[in-house]
Each structure stands twice: as structure tokens, then as C-alpha cells.
Amino acid sequence: MRLIRNIFLLALLAMGAFYLVEQSNLSPGETIDNISKVVREKENEIGTKTVPEKQPDIPLEGDLFQWIGKSQEALIEELDEPERKEQSAYAYTWWVYTDHTSQYIQFGILDNEIVTVYATGDDLDTEPIQLGQAYEDVEEQFPFENEVTYSEAFSSYTFRLNNDDLEKRPLVKGADDVFIQTYFDTFTNQLSSIRILTADTLLKHRPYELEYRGNLPNEPDLTDEQWGEVEEGMENQIFDITNVLRYQHEKSMLEWEDDVSEVAFSHSKDMEENNYFSHYSPSGDGLKERLSVEDIFYTTAGENIAAQYPDAPAAVEGWLNSEGHREALLEDDYTHLGVGVYRFYYTQNFLTIP
What integer pLDDT is reported at residue 62 of this predicted model? Predict the structure, then answer.
């Protein structure tokens, strides 16, 4: 998925390309610019690079920020057992806590240590900022920069954020090598969700252009069976996060539909295995044809697809910030949702079923 060579690497992991099928009659909708993942690699060089200056740490006061580094026993003592545990593509296990409406949190645990947290919804303690807060107010607490640096021993890293990154998901360095991704809803100009993660976890995800000296964590290298567990987890996460977003926007909750999820999964798998990215397969079949093969009854349907996002929360945040995909996420008339994930290809199929 990504290329790595020797000492220097610039990797641009853009927000993933995605499209939306027109909801009423399933004809092709307006095409959005295809911003698929691009990897740029420097030729072999011999040279030196100045180690970036250490940036000042930002104090993190809220309860949610304090979980990084704590054990799963501490998590159980405070929050009880999670609703479910799901594998990630990056060695840690997600512990998911949600009420399926107003609140959603998932904790990533590796070797009995919390290394990342993703959260969205209401009433979360994230001082000195709060979900729903305006971009300008958050920026007063967390000054956003085009470059965020990190050094460890003889290694140094510079995350380079383009204008799109700064608008939608600025990166902030907190204390003790903890980073915060602040996801914004650009349609409301408000903080939509946050992700807290250790430096090593951020380097595994590589969601920004990166220049570094030293080593990077290994890419995901999973068996088919392991991928199957990861994919099922991401499908559940996309479903839950979608419903929490709908609740926040006063929309009805969607029901899970197994048959539609199989249709969505088959499309994600077909795109990955046949190296294309489109609502239409090389044979010309679209969502209408895929649903008809399974004899699925519906009155209206729509589809969101995405590729090369590092995980499910990132994919949903990407859809939220694209007008057509946002319309599908928040469409009043939809009643059911099927989600299918294969590797890093994501498909949502929305239906209205009387």
C-alpha cells in the first residue's frame, strides 16, 4: 500500500477518494475530484538533516486524555467491560464503548497499555477543548501548525500538513509524546471528533506527509484470517459512528441489514482485487444491479465508497466532509445500512425499506 525506501520518505496519505451514487434513481451522481492516496519517494541520497527543534508541550487536562498509557484493568475498573473487542490493522485491539446514540469511544490497547483513543458524541471530558466547539476557539487552545515535529533518541520526524489537513484534521502534539488529531466538520466549522494516540501509533497510521530520519514501524502484515477480523470490526465501527453522527444531527437511527452488508463487502473486495475505484465494476454493473442480484427490496438507495483511509473512523470523517457523502450519511429517508470493508476499501449502502 505504501512504499518505504531507506532514510527519507515523503508519504502523502490524502483523505481517500470517494463518490456518491445519486440516491433517487441510482444514476451516476456528480463526480468529486479523485484524491486517492499518492506516495512520493525520494531517490537514494546521502546527506544530513537538521533535527527539528522540540515543540512546546500542550497540557491536556480532560479525563479522556489521561487514558493514554493506562492498563486495561484500569479501564475495566472505571468503565466495566466494553461492548465488544475488535482487532485493528496495527496490532492493537479496539475496546468499544457506545450507547449507540449520543456517545461513542474506542480505546486501542497494545500489550496491556492504551495507545490510542477515538471519541465522538456528547458529554465527553476533553478539556481544554470540547466536541462541538468552533474551529477558531479550538485553535486558541491548540495552535495549528503546518509542521509538527517529534524526536526520539537518534530518530526525528516531521509531519507536514497541507491546507486540507489543517482545515479538516489538524495535528497537535501534547505532553509525553502524545498526539491529538482534531477532526472538524467543515460544514458547521465545529470539532466533530478527536483521536488521541502515541507517537508510535501515529507513525503506524501515517495519515500525513512525513519526512523522517531513522526508522518507521512496520506496515500491517496480516493473514487473511486476521484481515477478516479487522474488516468485520471496521464495519461495526462505521455503522455505530454513522448512527451517532445522525443522532447529533437529529436524524433517525439506521438499522443494520446483513444482505446489504454482503453486497457492500463484495464491492469493496472487487475494487481492491481488480485495482479500480468506482461505483461501477469493470463490467458496468452498479449498485442497482448488485442489489437486484440479491433480490433486495427497497424504494431508494445510495452508496458511499472510500479507499486508503487508515481505519474506519477516518473514513467516516472523510465522508462527513464531502457534500454528496454527507447527504447520504444524514439523509432523512434512509432506514437501513449495510457496510462492507475489504482491506482499506470501504463501502456503505443505504436503503429506504418501507
Answer: 65
